[in-house]
Amino acid sequence: MLKGLGITAYRDIMNKSMTVQQEEKPEKPMGLLSRNKTVDKEDEVDSDTYVLEQFKTLKKLRAEMQNG
Amino acid sequence: MAEFNPLMDGPIPGQSLTTEVGSRPWQQPAKYSTVEDALEHYATKITDPAINESLLDALEMGTPVASIAEIVVQSGAMEGIHTIDVSILLLPVLMELIAYVADESEIEYSMDGADNIDQDIISPSKIVLAMKAVKDKMPQDKEKETMPMPEVTPEVSPQPSGLMARPNRDVVTTQGDI
Predict the structure, then answer these.
(1) List of residues 6+ apart from B37 with CB closer than 8 A
(2) In a 3-state reduction of DSSP, which class is residue B106?
(3) Residue range B92-97: average pLDDT?
(4) Which of B82, B90, B91, B105 to mutate against chain A (most A CBs within 10 Å)?
């Protein structure tokens, strides 16, 4: 059923982890009298981002272990 | 008569429809519907030293990490733990997790099985596994057989009896004693 899919998925996420940069959050207007106060979005993490974050964390742990 | 072809050894078209709908685990709602929950389910099992011994044995024997991860998620989907979509999303993270556990246990492994394995060279890990299997098969309570040691008796040299022979110094006889 999943024959060979593991390696394909692994390569995909490896490429993605090397290329995708984290989006920089726009700075909030800090002034007391500022009218452009933004409303915080709900911190929802979709499955793709979650998987990528977990993958990066594990990759970092492995690299740390291999490099002593 | 037609020869047996392993490629044709699959289910008959429509075989899945011969059972009642909903009677299979994968036809029921999955136990974990999100990737987060499913990953947590596997992570606790893979990182548990009491459970992952057989997993590490399989890695030592040369089974690729990708194959193991595929089998794990496939069986999870068949048991109704998660859906096939979730299993595909999980695959790379599971592979990385298995590789991490193998690194931690200092086991050499292959990610995709593409490494050329020299069949003539037997790895030390395989030798250790074979020795362990032989040791387990040997009866433990068998008494050790000891070799009978022959008794060593000192050789007694015969007493010299000639006229010119020197008397034995061990047996000193004097006339006064007689």
Answers:
(1) B82
(2) coil
(3) 94
(4) B91
Instruction: Return the structure tokens found at B112.
Output: 């995709």
Is residue B114 within 8 A of residue B104, CB to CB? The reply is no
Residue A36 token pair? 């452009």
Residue B74: is it exposed, middle or buried by C-beta count within 10 angstroms (0-12/13-18/19+)?
Answer: middle
Sort out which chain B residues have CB atoms less than 8 A from A12's CB and list them: 92
Find out whether B107 and B59 touch, Cβ atoms under 8 Å: yes
Provide the 10 A C-beta neighbour count for residue B58.
18
Q: What is d(CA B72, CA A7) in angstroms, rounded to the nearest whole number?
A: 14
pLDDT digits (tens, 9 = 90+) for A12-65: 998 888 886 666 666 766 777 777 767 766 667 788 889 999 999 999 999 998
* Residue B21 three-state SS: coil
Distance CA B54, CA B59 (A): 9
Q: Is B66 on the interface with A (CB under 8 A)?
A: yes
From the centroid of its chain, how far is CA B136?
A: 11
Asked whether the predicted pLDDT for residue B122 surpasses 70, the reply is: no
DSSP string, A7-57: HHHHHHHHHHHHHPPPPPPPPPP--TT-S-PPPPPP----HHHHHHHHHHH
Check CB contact under 8 Å for A2 and B92: no
A 10 A CB-CB count for B62 gives: 15
